[in-house]
């Protein structure tokens, strides 16, 4: 059983529509990441998609909402990795978070096309299990049993 530190997470009973909204936002960011010609934009939106997918996952499987406080992305990535049984989610996510923070707070960092290719290859190595787990979430969300009444019990 995954334990959620109340400093970073608060109890949350999401509706199917709320979770689908989180997933739509993640998919929109992922679409931008796939289509834009600027590597920095692709990187930023890919990271945002990962975080938003994590918010959906934790709401659905953990029944929690992440608090917006320093360190919450680290906690979110850790719990995603734990719930999915995929250590690379935390490793890759934290590498992206660190690069993002260097770019945002330390005067910039070079996000290269080669670096993005490497990140993409690493993600593709885990693609099968990621898609399978994401598919499980989709199936659970589309199930007739998943509605507010059933979820509250």
Count of DSSP strands: 2
Structural class: mainly alpha
Largest sheet: 2 strands, antiparallel
* SSE arrangement, N to C: EHHEHHHHH
Mean pLDDT: 79
Count every helix, treating DSSP H or I runs of 4 or more residues as helices. Answer: 7
- The outline comes out as globular
Question: Spatial order of the strands in the main sheet?
Answer: 1-2
Q: Give the fraction of residues assigned to helices.
A: over 70%
Overview of the structural elements:
Helix content is 72%, strand content 4%. It has 153 residues and is mainly α. Strands 1-2 form a two-stranded antiparallel sheet. Helix 2 (39-62) packs across helix 3, helix 2 packs across helix 4 (87-105) and helix 3 (72-84) runs antiparallel to helix 4. The protein starts with 8 loop residues before the first strand and ends with a helix.
Tags for this model:
153 residues, mainly alpha, two-stranded antiparallel ribbon, 4% strand, disordered C terminus
What does this entry show, briefly?
With 153 residues, this protein is mainly α. The chain has helices at 16-35, 39-62, 72-84, 87-105, 113-125, 127-142, 148-152; strands at 9-11, 64-66.
Strands, helices and their partners?
Blueprint: E1 9-11, H1 16-35, H2 39-62, E2 64-66, H3 72-84, H4 87-105, H5 113-125, H6 127-142, H7 148-152
Antiparallel strand pairs: 1-2
Helix pairs in contact: 1-2, 2-3, 2-4, 3-4
């Amino acid at each position: 059983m995954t334990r959620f530190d109340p400093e970073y997470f608060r109890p949350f009973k999401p509706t199917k529509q709320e979770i689908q909204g989180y997933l739509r936002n993640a998919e929109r960011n992922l679409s931008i990441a796939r289509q834009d010609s600027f590597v920095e934009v692709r990187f930023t939106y890919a990271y945002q998609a990962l975080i938003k997918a994590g918010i959906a996952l934790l709401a659905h499987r953990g029944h929690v909402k992440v608090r917006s406080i320093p360190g919450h992305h680290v906690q979110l990535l850790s719990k995603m990795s734990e719930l999915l049984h995929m250590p690379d989610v935390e490793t890759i996510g934290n590498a992206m978070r660190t690069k993002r923070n260097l770019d945002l707070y330390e005067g910039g960092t070079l996000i290269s096309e080669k670096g993005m290719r490497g990140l993409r290859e690493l993600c593709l190595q885990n693609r099968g299990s990621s898609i399978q787990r994401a598919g499980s979430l989709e199936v659970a969300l589309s199930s007739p049993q998943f509605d507010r009444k059933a979820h509250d019990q």
